[in-house]
Amino acid sequence: MGTQQLETVPEPKYWHLKTVLSEALDSEFSVGEILPNERDLAARFGVARATLRQALEQLELEGRLQRRRGVGTTVAPPRVGVAVGTEQHAWPGTVGDAWQAVDCTTSAPPAAVADILESVHGEQVHVVRRSRMSHGHPVAAELLYIPADSVPALSAIDAPSGAARARAVLRELQRLELEGQDRSVELGSARADDAKELDRLPGAPVLVVTTRFFAEGRTAAVSLATYRADTCRLTFGASGGVEIHHGPERHAS
């Protein structure tokens, strides 16, 4: 980043500095790279550290920077688009799915999920845990709840534990004919487990996306996906494509 004096700039110094820093992030830094410390940056741009902090905080709010515990301030990965209102339907785990299977357990779902599945409270279901990465950094975590009657042939499969079992459950789910799905999005706070997986502090803002998958005239599965609010944005349209945003340009993933 080159040195630039800001005394003659008519707009607030921190706002102009934010613009200069944003341009430098695009041209001189790569995703995950650690920025120089505040003292060096302030000296390089000829501003007070308080002005620099304002600019860095604004860039963090816009999702351009991340404050990582024990690391420092790093360049954030491109925002991940969360498609809503889509007309395209597909089971989790099909070709083009950006999620990675992590584990699969059997447990009773939360009461709200049990109500969506219209199952008896306390009845155990398959819980597939998946994660989504962007440029090597976690941006979302998902819990996919699948009742036993949605994967009736699973018991006949020698499915090991962990990610292999998760993939086996998803393969069986895909045997059903998907009749449709709906999706809702709400702002929430990261729970302890999600915060740890997403490298955020508990209580950090997140987007919680609930997706219901329909087959055989019922809800066959429910997905609760938690996205980092600082790295995601909502996208709308009939194409259903999830978009990765690189500044002003958009590239379909």
UniProtKB/TrEMBL annotation:
InterPro entries linked: Bact_HTH_transcr_reg, Chorismate_lyase_/UTRA_dom_sf, Tscrpt_reg_HTH_GntR, UTRA, WH-like_DNA-bd_sf, WH_DNA-bd_sf
Pfam families, A to Z: GntR, UTRA
Keywords: DNA-binding, Transcription, Transcription regulation
SUPFAM superfamilies reported in the protein's UniProt record: Chorismate lyase-like, Winged helix' DNA-binding domain
Domain HTH gntR-type: 11-78
PANTHER family named among the record's database cross-references: GNTR-FAMILY TRANSCRIPTIONAL REGULATOR, MANNOSYL-D-GLYCERATE TRANSPORT/METABOLISM SYSTEM REPRESSOR MNGR-RELATED
Protein's UniProt name: GntR family transcriptional regulator
Lineage of source species: Bacteria, Bacillati, Actinomycetota, Actinomycetes, Kitasatosporales
